Amino acid sequence: MWIAKVIVSYKTGILDPEAKTIHNALISFPEGILSEGYRDINKVETGKYFQISFSDSIDREKAEELTKQACDKILSNPVIQKYTFQLEEVSK
């Protein structure tokens, strides 16, 4: 059985307000409260993770094709987002 592990994130240059808010929160933590090194974080990016499981009858080539179609048509907005995925063969 094949599993696709998909990450969808914003393309370079697209505003990511959630990431900016998280970054600001990290670097503004008071000193000494879990904050060692937080000031050294330069950038945060957000994204979404999807895991798609395929039936046993689907081979690697078909799983890759279906994953690309799902990403292009449903899971991402190709105008502002990019995606990457890995296929992993797993046993039940």
Structural account:
This protein has 92 residues and is α+β, with helices and mostly antiparallel strands. The longest helix has 16 residues. The N and C termini lie close together (7 Å). Helices cover 29% and strands 27% of the residues. It has one domain: 2-Layer Sandwich (Mth169, Chain: A). It is elongated, with a radius of gyration of 18 Å.
Short précis:
The protein has 92 residues and is of the alpha+beta class.
CATH hierarchy, class: Alpha Beta
CATH topology-level fold name:
Mth169, Chain: A
Structural class: alpha+beta
- Note the total helix count: 2
Number of domains: 1
Q: Which regions contain 5 or more consecutive residues with pLDDT less than 50? A: none
Radius of gyration (CA) equals: 18 Å
Provide the β-strand percentage band. 25-35%
Mean pLDDT: 91
Helix content bin: 25-40%
Listing every helix as H and every strand as E from the N terminus to the C terminus, the arrangement reads: EHEHE
* CATH-defined architecture: 2-Layer Sandwich
CATH superfamily descriptor = Phosphoribosylformylglycinamidine synthase subunit PurS
Biggest sheet: strand arrangement:
2-1-3
How would the global form be characterised? elongated
**Main sheet makeup:** 3 strands, antiparallel
DSSP, total strands: 3
Distance between the termini: 7 Å
Descriptors for this entry?
92 residues; three-stranded antiparallel beta sheet; alpha+beta; Mth169, Chain: A; elongated; 3 strands
Blueprint (SSEs and pairs):
Layout lengths: L1 E9 L6 H11 L19 E7 L6 H16 L5 E9 L3
Antiparallel strand pairs: 1-2, 1-3
